[in-house]
Amino acid sequence: MSAPAAIYLDHAATAPLAPGVGSAMWRVLDGADANPSSAHAPGRAAAAAIDAAAEALAALIGAPPEALVWTSGATESINLALKGAVGFAGGGHVVSVVTEHHATLDTLDVLERGGTRVTRLGVDGEGRIDLEALDAAIADEATLVSVMHVNNETGVIQDIPAIGALCAARGVPLHVDAAQSLGRERIDVAAMNIALLSMSAHKIGGPKGIGALYVRRRPRLGLAAQIHGGGQQGGLRSGTLAGHQIAGFGAAADHARAVREAEQPRLAALRDRLAQRLSAIDGVTRNGSGAHVAAPFLNVSVAGVHGDALLTGLTEGVPALAVASGAACSAAKGQSSYVLRAMGRSPREAGASVRFSLGAATDVAAVDAAAARFAEEVARLRALASAA
Ligand SMILES: Cc1ncc(COP(=O)(O)O)c(C=O)c1O
């Protein structure tokens, strides 16, 4: 039995395939699909397809294509960036933020257990870091700074141009987790002084299981490889390249570049419409607001309802809403959001929160239907609670 249709508002978890992605992947799979490291003509054709995808992705971030390392996703990119930079430097001091994705936080824990010093900066009520505190931490012999661009739970945007300028002034490389900003926010690695940038295809309508790490070439940034073997990708990440996955990522990058300028204001307007309708409900407050939240994101806390009951009611009601409470991975662990708690929300507020993340298929009808269903569910749960 196929799953009933849901109003899909969970693009931060993963986005449906963008136009042209499936066919780009199939063209590779259905062709000779030789090993791109092979010297013969089919091998060279496979390598050329990978080069074309690298051009497309590089154009999205203002980088030279040869500065990209293909990985299995943002998680692996982040591991390579952090462990690779620390490994090359032989230890040191990494400065990061408490609201990072677990791919960063857990990697930092591993590095710390191995003797690396780690500073985790807090955030204010809007989810942003204090630049003076960051600068003080960098001045304390930092070897690497790692800050996410757009938060995956709230959509809060960190001021990467300002952070990059601080890092450049002190000569410390900056790693940015761009899993949620790629193709959505403008990224220019040179102008923003970004030395390492982690990316993932499936957040922009590409396939799952493929990502990339941008590694600055000039001045050259040293990284210790984390996966060893055949020496592909200059020895930085061994393993035969998955041409079909990479072609899919390239097609998604091309599509994102073509539509970004028009999509960003369209999604912001839809998000604002949703926010307006939800804030008319008594006891609904927004987590992260205004210009510092990326266009597709809306995160709200709801007073007077149980978070699990709300999520179940929304995801299993009719029409079903495909929404999330915090990050899918934290939700799986049954914990209230550490991101919202770091922003000063009470455990209760953090527990009864819902993330809406909009995307290509979202329209006015979807937003209005979602708002109406949300209002109905909150009223139903409150009536049940007061009757109990
Ligand atoms: C901010 C952020 N970083 C990293 C990741 C991990 O990405 P991937 O699924 O490509 O490993 C995600 C995905 O949830 C994310 O949202």
TrEMBL record:
Q: Which GO terms describe its molecular function?
A: cysteine desulfurase activity; iron-sulfur cluster binding; metal ion binding
Which organism is this entry from?
Salinisphaera orenii MK-B5
Under the heading Pfam families, the entry gives: Aminotran_5
UniProt entry keywords in alphabetical sequence: Iron, Iron-sulfur, Metal-binding, Pyridoxal phosphate, Transferase
Listed under catalytic activity are:
(sulfur carrier)-H + L-cysteine = (sulfur carrier)-SH + L-alanine
> What Gene3D superfamilies does its record include?
Aspartate Aminotransferase, domain 1, Type I PLP-dependent aspartate aminotransferase-like (Major domain)
* Superkingdom, taxonomy of origin: Bacteria
Provide the family line: Belongs to the class-V pyridoxal-phosphate-dependent aminotransferase family. NifS/IscS subfamily.
Quote the protein name from its UniProt record: Cysteine desulfurase
Identify which cofactors the protein needs according to its UniProt entry. pyridoxal 5'-phosphate
Q: Where in this chain does the record put each Aminotransferase class V domain?
A: 7-369
